[in-house]
């Protein structure tokens, strides 16, 4: 259960297509086991190479040290631990991410422009936000 919901109530699946995520390596930061496993399964159906999931900063840093990623889904609150140090690291590495939260979090000013998706979320909205973040990734040397 997640804040009074089962994982099946937290997400809605309608139509799965592979869109712009196929072949991408996506880091998943999620501390709720059922939600994490469902996200992994969903992303794998979209031909995503999932890195993780992990539910704490130490494990996420280790994953990022060991594997290159194209983007990330970051739950803001990982069991009381805020994900912002990892988001800083991703931003410094020009790696796009989407912040997710089951709360009305006030994000630090430096992340005011970061894409966010509230929980319970629709997978279509989450997928769209992640695809948009990946497409908007700044490529050095481009305008």
UniProtKB/TrEMBL annotation:
The keyword Phosphoprotein applies. Residues 25-134 form the Response regulatory domain. The modification 4-aspartylphosphate is found at residue 75. InterPro entries: CheY-like_superfamily (IPR011006), Sig_transdc_resp-reg_receiver (IPR001789). Keywords: Phosphoprotein. It comes from the Bacteria. One of its GO terms (biological process) is phosphorelay signal transduction system. Gene3D superfamilies: 3.40.50.2300. Transmembrane segments: none annotated. This is Response regulator.
């Amino acid at each position: 259960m997640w804040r009074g919901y089962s994982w099946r109530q937290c997400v809605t699946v309608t139509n799965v297509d592979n869109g712009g995520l196929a072949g991408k390596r996506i880091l998943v930061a999620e501390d709720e086991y059922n939600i994490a496993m469902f996200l992994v399964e969903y992303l794998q159906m979209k031909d995503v190479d999932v890195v993780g999931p992990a539910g704490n900063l130490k494990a996420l840093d280790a994953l990022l040290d060991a594997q290159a990623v194209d983007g990330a889904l970051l739950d803001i609150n990982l069991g009381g631990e805020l994900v912002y140090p990892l988001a800083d690291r991703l931003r410094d590495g020009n790696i796009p991410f989407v912040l997710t939260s089951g709360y009305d979090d006030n994000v630090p000013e430096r992340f005011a422009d970061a894409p966010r998706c509230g929980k319970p979320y629709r997978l279509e909205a989450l997928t769209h936000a992640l695809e948009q973040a990946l497409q908007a990734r700044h490529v050095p040397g481009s305008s």
